[in-house]
Task: inverse folding
């Protein structure tokens, strides 16, 4: 890609992202205001507010509504396709399904102390509610974010930049978008890293189901460590 074209496309992406970020912010604030006015539980408010992520694809409607529901966006993907760690195309190669198993194990081991610290003082009723709301949040948030970020946006950025740069751009913007949710810069960077591997699994498997499963699992971990409903 020529430098002039790269600058033009980068500027277009920045503008589209800022528009989506702004709309998402005000939509989220409006949802929060309505939820607070009718007195819904905080957990329900957080879950409903995640629909604000759809705002990031609204600017793409002006580029062509058909981009939102292409076969590339909606396909399941091949779990036997290979993916390499740590650089997706370079490193130790494994099939997607094994990569997901290793990922789940590492996440569980790395977060077990934080899960124990957060849930140790909760009674059985609170634990049941945490599990209930956590499952709903994880399903809603993961499906929405993966359709938006690894479905529509990653698919479009790959067409503009190619696989490598498209993945990097999507991952960075995915992390930055969480700043709007009140997370620190360091947490947003961590989310960008997570987005890199979810995006890599989507590209390598040629579908978004693998990344949805990764996202659901991570969201459950975040719920059980107190990052979501305890914030």
Result:
């Amino acid at each position: 890609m020529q430098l002039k074209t790269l600058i033009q496309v980068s500027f277009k992406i920045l503008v589209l992202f800022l528009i989506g970020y702004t709309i998402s912010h005000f939509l989220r604030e409006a949802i929060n205001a309505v939820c607070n006015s009718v007195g819904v539980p905080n957990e329900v408010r957080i879950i409903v507010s995640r629909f604000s992520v759809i705002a990031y694809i609204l600017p793409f409607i002006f580029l062509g509504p058909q981009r939102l529901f292409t076969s590339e966006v909606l396909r399941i993907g091949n779990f036997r396709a290979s993916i390499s760690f740590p650089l997706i195309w370079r490193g130790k190669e494994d099939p997607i399904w094994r990569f997901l198993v290793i990922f789940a194990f590492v996440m569980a081991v790395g977060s077990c102390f934080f899960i124990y610290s957060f849930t140790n003082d909760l009674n059985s009723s609170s634990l049941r509610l945490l599990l209930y709301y956590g499952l709903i949040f994880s399903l809603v948030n993961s499906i929405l974010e993966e359709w938006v970020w690894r479905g529509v946006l990653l698919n479009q950025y790959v067409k503009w930049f190619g696989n490598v740069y498209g993945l990097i751009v999507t991952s960075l913007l995915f992390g930055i978008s969480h700043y709007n949710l009140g997370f620190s810069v360091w947490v947003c960077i961590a989310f960008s890293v997570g987005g890199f591997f979810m995006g890599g699994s989507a590209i390598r498997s040629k579908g978004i189901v693998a990344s949805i499963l990764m996202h659901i699992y991570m969201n459950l971990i975040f719920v059980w460590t107190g990052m979501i409903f305890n914030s």
The first strand starts at residue 82 and ends at 86. Residues 76 and 209 are 5 Å apart (CA to CA). Strands lie at 82-86, 91-95. The two ends are 43 Å apart (CA to CA).
